[in-house]
Amino acid sequence: MRKPIIAGNWKMNKTAKEAKEFAEAVKTKIPSNETVDSVIGSPALFLETLVNAAEGTELKIAAQNSYWENEGAFTGETSPAALADLGVDYVIIGHSERREYFHETDEDINKKAKAIFANGMIPILCCGESLETYEAGKTAEWIEGQITAGLDGLTDGQVSNLVIAYEPIWAIGTGKSADANIADEICGVVRKTVEKLYGKEVSDSVRIQYGGSVKPENIAEYMAKENVDGALVGGASLQADSFLALLDAVK
Ligand code: PGA
């Protein structure tokens, strides 16, 4: 049985004060992590505040990016070793906004995945197709390519613990969520790709999230699907009430 994982992705939103207020508002209301893993993906600036606020609670904290080297002359980058030292649990990598605006390649994302595992954290590896690819009927092939490149060289044990988020780019922040059947079908393509590369035992344990305009009102439809083990949520994770409502729908 795969445990559901709901992760908020705040993107570049909130101030330190707002991040702290959010954590204070939710931290005693997070469901048991025996039922669901509850994660907030925060800008790097507020990670320490959130890790401290979440200490002793069931709330887990994710960074939204990291570099692949632990230290050195990489101005402006964030060290995965420093993130782990801070107490960060997960790192979101390969989000379509990072691929598109910051030109991250599958190769970069693969190096980040390895560095994050090497530092004892878990990557949430994002994949997803553009509207053009979707309309051309090439989604499955595209996703298979991103997953194959992103996982290159990872071990069975690492992939078993990995979280993969399928986020069609055309459904992010647009209010146009992919129908739950499409989400299930493409999350199934992700799982089949993992099975082809790592075998059934690993593909049965990797957790796959759907992301793209998920909200409290529609999350149950996705979670009911066989291949969907959770959600990566942007807009609807920004308010404490809405984040808690997402978790409530799953627990
Ligand atoms: P959204 O964003 O929920 O606002 O569509 C999802 C994401 O980009 O992770």
TrEMBL record:
It comes from the Bacteria. Homodimer. It is an enzyme of class 5 (isomerase). The keyword Cytoplasm applies. This is Triosephosphate isomerase. The keyword Cytoplasm applies. Belongs to the triosephosphate isomerase family. Involved in the gluconeogenesis. Catalyzes stereospecifically the conversion of dihydroxyacetone phosphate (DHAP) to D-glyceraldehyde-3-phosphate (G3P). GO terms for molecular function: triose-phosphate isomerase activity. It is found in: Cytoplasm. It comes from Enterococcus casseliflavus (Enterococcus flavescens). CDD domains: TIM. GO terms for cellular component: cytosol.
